[in-house]
Please model this.
Amino acid sequence: MTGNPKLIDKLFSALPPKESRALSTVVSLADDSDVRVFLVGGPVRDLLLGLAPTDLDVSVEGDAIAFATRLAEATDGRLVRHATFGTATVSAGWRIDLATARTETYSRPGVLPKVQPSTIDADLLRRDFTINALALALNGPAPGKLLDPTRGKDDLDAGLVRVIHDRSFQDDATRILRAARYETRFGFRLEEATQDLVHRDLPYLVTITGVRLRHDIERTFEEGRADQAVSRLRGLGVLSTVHSGLDWTPAQAKALRVLKPPLPAGSRPVAWAILAWETPSAQIEPLVKRLALTKAQAEAVRSVPFLRDLRARLNNDLRPSEVDRLLSSFPLNAVLALSVIEDTPASRWARLYLKLRSIHPLLRGDDLQSLRVPRGPAVGEMLALLRAAKLDGEAKTRADEERLVREYLAQNSE
Ligand code: CTP
Model:
């Protein structure tokens, strides 16, 4: 067996110093305990594409949890174990995911697989696509050896996303969404037979739980070209199969671009509101249920039909305070979605509203009491009135606000 020390050098020099030191510890611990360890999947693919690996996935031919425990001790790292899958994560300002090399069997389509320890070769063959069925030996007889049992490197060179076996999407239909991500992220395309399998196996998406589907769609939002990845999901028929109320128009795509992907986790409710923008009202609740949306996501999505209807009223004849009143009853995430959907008076008002939210009168509750506004609801009412006047440009200074208070008191004492 021959290794390729150059690939190992390339790996270590692509990593930030902390990761690089942590991975060196993995290698020396593995040597000490006579265990073979491999970098697997995404990071090997990325390395071959000349990209810096984003996560470090290490496959251990042996007990990964015991190995991870030793790594955590040696590095003073935090250990998180997932006993069911024989995987563990160690982190300490860096993060390494370790997994026991394993085979997986799916008892039914869409369910999580049963796992059994195996060799690295069998582990690679259980994977989704040839471009991910790659391992780089980190130690053993041939460090740096690339294990590529399905000719993934050829597919990387040709820019093809190809399944390893023709039941792959039936085992796990979320792989269809993964394929669309790889196509857009790397500018690849589905290999022809794989594309046929996508069409054949789309109905298997019904076997996937809402939570898993939601997570995979959210991973799509996190892509740098999220709008294109979602367009591809539409083109492949994934969106309409996931839920008949889902569509993806150029306006929605543009809105997602305006949010500047990759989207952080906090922006997910906005992205969901954009994705549901064309969903008919009657389909909103079934969609929320099917995708097991979180509370904040569901709230944003439920507001979509109301905001769509409100658009006609959000015209140029309104005053800022009226817009503020109309939009303040909606979740902020939904208004954010409206603000980036198309360029209409409604979206412009939504953008202005987002700025208006932070505007408050200069006078406070205490000031009002000094001006003899009676304690109780009148204070709140007066503050709201002052805020509206300020939003509409009718109260610019403290003196303007005080004048308005006096006028209000005079009117109310008549
Ligand atoms: N995998 C799979 N089927 C899935 C999910 C994952 O076969 N439904 C395999 C893939 O081969 C992948 C590996 O498990 O390389 C790790 O999956 P994941 O952590 O999701 O991939 P990353 O490498 O982290 O992410 P990406 O590929 O998007 O960079």
